[in-house]
Please model this.
Amino acid sequence: MGRKKTSKKEDSEQKKTSEKSSVHIKLENEEAVLSKRDILSSEMNLLKIERNIQNYQKLRGDEMKVKRLIQKKAREIRMNINKLQVMIPSPKIPRILKKEISISEPEKIEENVHFNSPKRRSTVESQLLEIQDRLNELQGRGIEE
Model:
C-alpha cells in the first residue's frame, strides 16, 4: 500500500540504472533458432489448448441445452401419463377375484436391484484378469475342436 512518492527526476534515474544493469547474453545462431522454435511451438500449443477449451465450453453449453430439453419432455410425458391414469376408469373386480389374484400372485421381486459397482481399481483389474482368463479358455477350446 505505502508506495513512496518519487519525483520525475528520481524515476528517470531509476530507469537509467535499470537500463545500465541489463545483462546481454550472446547466443550462437543454432541456439537462437532452437529457442525461437521452442517459443513458437509453445505459443502454438497454447493456442491449441485455448481452441480446445473454447470448443469444450461450446459443447458443454449444447449439452446443457439438450439436458434441459430432455427434462422438459420428461415432465410433459409424466403429466400426460398422470392425465391418462385419471381419465382411464379403474376396473371393478369382484372381491372373490381379488382374493384369488392376491393368492396366485408370485412374490414381487424388488425393483431396486443394486449392482455391485467396482469401487476400487483392484476390482477392475481382477475383473480384467477374469475376462482375459475366459478369453484364453475360449481360444483353447477353439483350437482343440
The chain has a mean pLDDT of 77. The chain is about 75% helix and 0% strand.
